[in-house]
UniProtKB/TrEMBL annotation:
<protein>
    <recommendedName>
        <fullName>Protein kinase domain-containing protein</fullName>
    </recommendedName>
</protein>
<feature type="binding site">
    <location>
        <position position="110"/>
    </location>
    <ligand>
        <name>ATP</name>
    </ligand>
</feature>
<feature type="domain" description="Protein kinase">
    <location>
        <begin position="82"/>
        <end position="362"/>
    </location>
</feature>
<dbReference type="InterPro" id="IPR000719">
    <property type="entry name" value="Prot_kinase_dom"/>
</dbReference>
<dbReference type="Pfam" id="PF07714">
    <property type="entry name" value="PK_Tyr_Ser-Thr"/>
</dbReference>
<dbReference type="InterPro" id="IPR001245">
    <property type="entry name" value="Ser-Thr/Tyr_kinase_cat_dom"/>
</dbReference>
<keyword id="KW-0723">Serine/threonine-protein kinase</keyword>
<keyword id="KW-0067">ATP-binding</keyword>
<keyword id="KW-0418">Kinase</keyword>
<dbReference type="InterPro" id="IPR011009">
    <property type="entry name" value="Kinase-like_dom_sf"/>
</dbReference>
<keyword id="KW-0547">Nucleotide-binding</keyword>
<dbReference type="GO" id="GO:0004674">
    <property type="term" value="F:protein serine/threonine kinase activity"/>
</dbReference>
<keyword id="KW-0808">Transferase</keyword>
<comment type="similarity">
    <text>Belongs to the protein kinase superfamily.</text>
</comment>
<dbReference type="InterPro" id="IPR017441">
    <property type="entry name" value="Protein_kinase_ATP_BS"/>
</dbReference>
<dbReference type="GO" id="GO:0005524">
    <property type="term" value="F:ATP binding"/>
</dbReference>
<dbReference type="InterPro" id="IPR008271">
    <property type="entry name" value="Ser/Thr_kinase_AS"/>
</dbReference>
Length: 408
């Protein structure tokens, strides 16, 4: 895998007029000149290529590889030439199509919309990370295709689409997410992020945790997806400073304003996701013709007054476990605290959601942000003008358009 990725990046660099001299290895002693942002992005891959020998990488690949390289012809056949009727969703990256291979297995194919240095790098990042991670709550890579200017990633097909489609999209009226399923999704997706933060080597920041990136399998178990924005955290580093990418409503303030990406930024985004799961509300909702309100601005005063029953999604029709609802909402709000040091780690989030850290939960409940009349920490009274662009992040992906149909 690393040799293939090295080749892809090398070809991309050549295509964008980056000159090389010296040895042929991409990282060895090669000297090259390139725009600084590209150099910094490429440095993320150094650990992949120089930490192990070629023979070690091949041996590891033999033991772990469950992916393969697809031909463009094969994917055209599987998706009926990328027919519109096969489209599952669309975003800034391109489109996702349902497909069926010759053996009858179902796949999802992400087809990049624009061929560019940015798209090539996001493609390389996602393929490499997907090939490296192995966890029951992370979407599995089936393979990829890189022919000509086509860049496609092949995944396992998730028959229940995304969490977004059930909370706000075409399946929301069907009320398929009972409380038990919501808890399973919350804990499962949290465990997937724990793997990225603590067990992956090097550690990984997702940077785009949101409802559309939590996919649901046939049993409604969560699979965190879309690693195109992911960043690698070197050993010993507390954060990386980078260009801001993500989705409005999920961005931690220190990341949105200063570009400081850390594991705590994923915690913030996950806190917003927890509030979505509990309430069925969107991260930012229109209040009137001039303002929008964040989900934390709406939820925090209700929590301070103990009105949890007014927070829970009406589609549940009162069928939920009160103590679990309280845990989800309180943990969601502390995760979305404006001060990073106040946020728990994802390991703590999992334990809190499972009810295993009772003393820690009591400590969180007594935090000043939950005191009536002193509520602070999440929103600081910030509202969004209704005519503000939802694309204020310079390199943000567009919102996913969920296609209103179910692929057979």
């Amino acid at each position: 895998m690393n040799e293939i990725l090295e080749y892809l990046i090398l070809q991309s660099l050549k295509r964008f007029s980056i000159s090389f001299s010296g040895k042929t290895s991409l990282w060895g002693c090669t000297r090259f000149s390139a725009p600084l942002p590209w150099v910094f992005e490429l440095m993320d891959f150094r650990s992949f290529f120089c930490c192990t020998s070629r023979s070690d990488r091949k041996e590891k690949a033999k033991k772990q590889s469950t992916w393969r390289i697809f031909s463009l012809k094969e994917l055209h056949a599987a998706t009926n030439n990328f027919n519109y009727d096969n489209k599952l969703g669309e975003g800034g990256f391109g489109s996702v199509y349902w497909g069926q291979l010759w053996d009858g297995s179902q796949i999802a194919v992400k087809r990049l919309k624009v061929f560019s240095n940015k798209a090539e790098m996001e493609f390389a990042v996602e393929v490499e990370i997907l090939a490296r991670v192995r966890h029951k709550n992370l979407l599995s890579l089936r393979g990829y295709c890189a022919e000509g200017q086509e860049r496609l990633i092949v995944y396992d097909y998730m028959p229940n689409l995304s969490l977004l489609s059930h909370l706000h999209g075409q399946h929301s009226s069907e009320s398929l997410l009972d409380w038990s399923r919501r808890m399973t999704i919350a804990i499962g997706s949290a465990e997937g992020i724990v793997y990225l933060h603590n067990q992956a080597t090097p550690h990984i920041i997702h940077r785009d945790v949101k409802a559309s990136n939590v996919l649901l399998d046939s049993e409604f178990k969560a699979q965190v997806a879309d690693f195109g924005f992911a960043k690698l955290i070197p050993d010993g580093a507390t954060h990386v400073t980078t260009r801001v990418k993500g989705t409005l409503g999920y961005l931690a303030p220190e990341y949105a304003m200063l570009g400081k990406a850390s594991e705590s930024c994923d915690v913030y985004s996950f806190g917003i996701l927890l509030l979505e799961i509990a309430s069925g509300k969107k991260p930012i909702e229109k209040v009137n013709a001039t303002t929008r309100r964040s989900i934390t601005e709406w939820a925090l005063p209700l929590v301070c007054e103990g009105k949890f029953s007014e927070i829970v999604d009406a589609k549940l029709k009162g069928e939920y476990v009160e103590q679990e609802l309280k845990r989800v909402v309180v943990v969601g709000l502390i995760c979305a605290h404006n001060q990073p040091e106040k946020r728990p780690t994802m390991i703590e989030v999992v334990e809190l959601l499972k009810g295993e850290m009772k003393e820690k939960f009591v400590e969180i409940e007594n935090d000043e942000m939950f005191r009536c009349g002193e509520a602070r920490g999440c929103s600081d009274g910030v509202s969004f003008a209704a005519d503000d662009s939802l694309d204020f992040v310079s390199e943000e992906k567009e919102g996913v358009e969920e296609i209103e149909k179910v692929v057979a």
